[in-house]
Design a protein that fits this description.
The protein is α+β, with helices and mostly antiparallel strands and 398 residues long. It has helices at residues 14-25, 41-45, 71-77, 80-89, 109-121, 173-180, 199-202, 242-248, 267-274, 282-289, 292-301, 315-326, 382-397; strands at residues 3-10, 30-33, 52-55, 63-64, 94-96, 101-104, 125-127, 132-138, 141-146, 149-158, 185-191, 195-196, 212-219, 226-234, 238-240, 257-260, 328-330, 334-335, 343-348, 366-368, 376-377. The protein is built from 13 helices and 21 strands. The chain binds dihydroflavine-adenine dinucleotide.
């Protein structure tokens, strides 16, 4: 049985539900299709179950893309305040956690329910779970072949996200459709992901697993440079925590990370200044600043005896120790991959899309929104803001 719609939105995640609701509320006849049996799993598990749904500081500077200017227009036309107005209208309690990050007080389910309600206001029809065999052209319209019959639509919006967390239904659908219609793809890569090290090289750090501390981390040069001051977490396989998730999106395999484990203290200078006045040994001094296990680990990794007194340590060695803490340079061997990545970098090339509407420049009526596109936010609510904003831009245009 063939059914006809103004708009078919494929992927009922953050961007897809937003787009369908906006288009439906404009009076368009909309169908929303998803292959998953559980709705919007990524929203559900996000922010530890409380969904960090936006960031009050969100702007183009918080996004990575081959064209950093592309996201400007879409972000400017749908701001964090716009999403917040919706949240307030639905009386969803929220709080700011850290650096502009807004979370639900209770549960991310509230965001899903809100988006469902917005779709109902737009009389959006649902087909879910529903597998899609292919998307093609049928005259001016698009034909979508599904296991529940054929769907004809004047416009198609692809909102199937990226490759992160395949076990909850991530697929390469958006990239396949883009390639089929001749659109270029920026090679996808895991982003916001823990970094790993060769198991032999990581052996000495195994006892540090579980330690967390505030660090400054940097990688790259000039334009491609990333720099964050956030918490770091030692794990059994490498490094994680917000500092590492953030920097992972900038890190290129084969290049080092530079970590400052005590960003607020110039270790060499402080130790040299204190040499005559402080009678303690190195182990005790470092234990005031760093978790004891880490302090001793660093001192021993640099072949010092933690029992040696500060006064008896030559300045040259104190400078080496300062470098080991204020500029620890390490080279990850890889990442935990899509299994653990919060997002996918790369995707449908922005040069292929209108920066106003998200429609393909080559194929009239074909749109890509959300994480499927080569626009990736930092950690902290930016990725959802992109999903709401790009979904709205397409929803207003279809
Ligand atoms: P999304 O992935 O949400 O939706 C895609 C939809 O398409 C899914 O419903 C999927 O089932 C469907 N689909 C896929 N392939 C299909 C196919 N072949 N056929 C039919 N349907 C198909 N961001 C943020 O801003 N704040 C946060 O707190 C978090 N937290 C977080 C935690 C974890 C664990 C992860 C993995 C990710 C986050 N994120 C986040 C990132 C955020 O979840 C992500 O960027 C958005 O969900 C992207 O929205 P989209 O709608 O583009 O894709």
């Amino acid at each position: 049985m063939q059914k006809q719609y103004d708009v078919a939105v494929i992927g009922a995640g953050a961007a897809g539900m937003t787009c369908a609701a906006v288009a439906g509320q404009r009076g368009k006849k909309v169908i929303l299709i998803d292959h998953a049996s559980k709705l919007a799993e990524k929203i559900r598990i996000s922010g530890g179950g409380r969904c960090n749904f936006t960031n009050t500081n969100a702007g183009p500077q918080n996004f990575l893309s081959q064209n950093p200017h592309f996201c400007k227009s879409v972000l400017a036309r749908y701001t964090p305040q716009d999403f917040l107005s919706l949240i307030k209208r639905y009386r969803i309690g929220y709080h700011e956690k850290h650096k502009g990050q807004l979370f639900c007080n209770d549960s991310s389910e509230q965001i899903i329910d809100m988006l469902k309600a917005e779709c109902s206001l737009g009389s959006v029809e649902w087909r879910m779970p529903c597998n899609i065999a292919g998307v093609g052209k049928s005259g001016e319209a698009f034909r979508i072949d599904t296991n529940a019959g054929e769907i004809l639509a004047s416009k198609v919006v692809i909102a199937t996200g990226g490759l992160s967390i395949p076990k909850i239904g991530a697929t390469d659908f958006a990239y396949r459709i883009a390639r089929q219609f001749g659109l270029r793809i920026i090679e996808p890569q895991p982003g916001l992901v823990p970094l790993t090290f060769d198991s032999a090289a990581w052996q000495p750090f195994l006892p540090l697993a579980g330690i967390a501390l505030l660090v400054e981390v940097k990688t790259g040069e000039k334009k491609a440079r990333g720099e964050f001051k956030e918490d770091l977490l030692f794990t059994h396989r490498g490094l994680s925590g917000p500092a590492i998730l953030q920097i992972s999106s900038f890190w290129k395999p084969g290049t080092p990370l530079r970590l400052n484990l005590l960003p607020d203290i110039d270790v060499a200078e402080t130790l040299i200044d204190d040499k005559t006045s402080v009678k303690k040994n190195l182990g005790n001094i470092f234990a005031q600043w760093l978790p004891t296990r880490l302090a001793h680990g660093i001192i021993e990794a640099n072949q010092f005896d933690p029992a040696i007194r500060l006064a008896d340590t030559p300045d040259r060695l104190l400078r080496n120790l300062g470098d080991a803490i204020n500029c620890w340079t390490i080279q990850p061997s890889g990442s935990e991959g899509y299994r653990k990545a919060e997002v996918t970098l790369g995707g449908v090339g922005t040069q292929e899309l209108s920066q106003q509407s998200m429609m393909s420049n080559q194929v009239a009526g074909l749109y890509f929104v959300g994480e499927a596109v080569d626009v990736t936010g930092w950690l902290g609510g930016y990725n959802f803001q992109w999903a709401w904003a790009s979904g709205t831009a397409a929803g207003l245009d279809v």
